[in-house]
Amino acid sequence: MTGLATATLRRRWAAFAGMFVALALGVGLVTGTLLLITSANAQVPPRLSGSPVLVQSPAAADNDLGFTEYVPWSAARTTELVGALARVPGVVAAIPDRTFYAQAVVGGRPVGDPHPLDPQGHGWASAALRPYPLIEGRAPAADGEVVLGRDAGAPVGATVQVLTGAGPAPYTVTGLIDGPGVYLPDATAARLAPGVRLIGLLVDGPADEVAMAAAAVAGDGRVLTGEARRDAEAEAYARLRWIGAQILIAVGTLAVFVSVFIVASTFAFTATQRRRELALLRAVGATPGQVRRLLGAEALGVGLVASAVGVALGALAAPWAGDALVRAGLEPVGFTVVADVAALVAAYLGGVVVALVAVWAVARRAARVRPVAALREATVERRPMTWSRWLVGGALTVGGLALVVGSAFAEPENLMNTSLYAAMALILGLAALAPVVVGPLVRVLTWPFTLGRGATGTLVRGSAALAVRRTAGTAAPVLLTVGFATLILGFAATMTAAYGVGEKERTGAGVMVRPDTVPGLSDAAARAAGGPAPLPSVVYDASRGAVDVTGIDAVWRGDLLTATSGSLARLGTDPRGVAVVGWLDWAVGSTHELTLADGARETVTVLAVVEAAPTPVIMSRATVRAHDPSALAPVAYVLDGTAATTQARLGGGLGARAVDLTADSGGSDAEEDRLVQIFVWILVAVATGYTGLSIATTLLMAVVGRARDLALLRLAGASATRVRGLVAAESALVVAVGTVLGLAVALSSLAGLRAGLSASIGAPVDLIVPWASVAAVVGCCLALAIGAGTLSAHLALRTPAVRSSE
Amino acid sequence: MRSYPAGRLAGRVLTNAYAVRLRAVRKVYGTGERAVVALDGLTADFANGTFTAVMGPSGSGKSTLLHCAAGLERPDGGQVLIDGTDLGPLSERRLTVLRRERVGFVFQAANLIASLTAEQNVALPLRLSRRRPAPADITAALSEVGLAGRAGHLPAELSGGERQRVALARALVTRPAVVFADEPTGALDSAASRQVLALLRGLVDRHGHTVVMVTHDPLAAGHADRVLFLADGALVDELAGPLSAEGVAGRMARLEVAR
Fold first, then answer.
1. Residue A762 reports pLDDT greater than 80
2. Is the pLDDT of residue A79 over 80?
3. What's this model's pTM, rounded to 2 decimal places?
4. Distance (Å, rounded) from C-alpha A242 to C-alpha A545?
């Protein structure tokens, strides 16, 4: 059969164009995402690349998060270590790398874009560890002097406000460097970052030998040299990469789902178009098994070539996508794509397997064609549904609906997945049941046409309703695109709105203050806001490892703290009293020695065990601030007043934005918002662009396959314009069918989500669908479909009726 | 022209006098009130080395007779034997293999796989049997139908008559017990029709093949040894001996009037 398959592929390549394009794109996307994921490895931080030997503080005990965190050395221990390391032979200087939050305010607005996990402030001594030279001015020497990056836009000699955890303070710019960062005098830095996690060594002589000698005096520190220095990459970068990887995995999963779906539907479509030819093969003696193998060999042929093209496309596009990810802030600067052979091979084989899997069910059905079908002149489809289609479609639809209902009662953390699975099941289910659903739907949608006298309406209605499988096949990609786009867009909008409602319900506050151009709120911003502003930090326990902690002034309703044992009365005011969640297994009254953010050790007493809390440990805000000068509050609540009056108090220099807590204000974290937006648009772009192409190719094949019908219409007296109009109207009808089904799927999944959100928040949540964006997606589908339809009609009409009969 | 091995042909003639036998064959389409009886207990025999035409008005069941006789459709009742083999108990796969090896087909149109050349179309049944087609056999089959020079052409590059002749060559390449032709000249002009009918006649006369042809054209039926007339799924008349187109047309007209 291989010979026949090869001949078919070579001479009838147009029939496989849709499958080819879908598969090549899918493999391309998967290749790209795989390369990006495998390339996302830790690297030596550029800021430390001037130091051949680094000494890193000890790692905390493992926790559940999977990121390694390092316990800082206290100020005293740092001094001791720096002294010891400086005396090692070959060491020119031992420099503690002090990193803290600092941001210059230029032109009334905080500038630079410090990531919440990667603050830009450093002590001037750290400047010796990096390759950026001072390009103008001099080093900061006294309190109140600062060196900025050239891009900050403040000239030498200018006075700027510098924001730190405490708030803004005036500084004089003494110099500029050719790179990012805010450099303060070492004495100031030592106050802002008392705890140190890295000591950089400048050496004279072979780095390896110095490293050996340094290890002898480093105590609990780890000595890193050469490539091993990449372990010093900030944990923030690891988190960033993790977020990037999540997005890439989502895109890759979507690509696989969409390509199996599209490849299967285009191949099914091709097989339906070739029904007669397959019947002829059966009549002249091909067994069903031979027909199956023929289709399998064809799919394999397409898979082998399309996957190769896809891998090439993906490999070419990956560096470009990598740059885009860096610009979008999803990968750290310096991220480069490396061509990993295993990833390329995996993507290639994956593509071939997808082609074979997609063809399997189709081939089984196609091989059952009765040989007599070859003798029938017209290819009227008699039995669009098979029992397996009923079974699969029915099961998936019922399962999807069950999940919709289930999401109304789902736990908040399962809500998102439940409604996504519901949508996937409904999309696949409806696609399988499409032949049943499409007929009545076409009749309803085209009912207005029957009122007119024109032939077009009747023809469109007739052919779409008759060729149910064809209509269903071409409507499927539209269903997928509109369904997914509506779901994702509506999902993001509804979640954002629900967040606002949830916050209001939880806190009773009228206004929320959020960081806008800063990574978090300083104490000055929190004071100006005038309400509770819980302060997050981290503490280290010998057995539990890094444990998140929140500092509060006093218990208030927004913290949702309920004691299961002990008392919350002194929480916030007792500097050594903590409330803990149950799973820490810390009993009321027990004491624990914790290392705080500055490396100092404190013994705390458990005042209460609480049911649930924003972080496992809650303690006094004053204690957190005392030990973590760079801690920033993610939010402050204003119990009375409006956003306008609050904003007036805040001004612009603190980088804070006040929003009213109402349903449409959203007001979630700006950084989170940005990531969600990027995520949403990547998914929408992938789904729309990808399936758009398949809409175009499927329609193209459909019309080319109907060249004879169209030629007959011409012979029957229809003008070429009329025929093009007819094809355009048919294409529009297909988009309408897909849109109706897609909206049905998306809206029912969203309804489940809305019910679930309302239940978990305890207040009604509005279902928000960004109709303008949905309309844009439908418009794209429509333009693609009509464009592809009329183009192919144009091509088909160039072939004379006589020639097109074979 | 290549001659077929006499021993093989002779062996078949000795064991089975009839290439195809139908015994009380019944075929019903649809169920309940919409059921249509296409064949109503039809019995007919097709002897080796004969050329039989099957005629009848539209809906008389002549196509169904051909489909059932050729094993393309399974009857609802009765028995079909090809070359002495009862088709009833055969599995779909065994039936397909029997069709491939014992039966040749020529349909009205769209007989050929569009992506294969004339040569490849002819070789198709052999390839499906996993036999490596000997180039000489393929050339012989194409020469038989006068198309030796067009072996490398695609169906789109051939005329309607040439396509039918390629289909005929393909039907012969497996040396079948019987060749079924369903309106083989229905889509051809009269010159091409004559050529195809002459070829069918030659198969019977020179090589002892058995041909069963469904047609509504008295001119075509005039080339046969025998004409069976069908109406409402039953055999209503039979004409044998030297046939003329006029005689067939007259009998046909009488049948139409009788209805």
1. no
2. yes
3. 0.64
4. 20
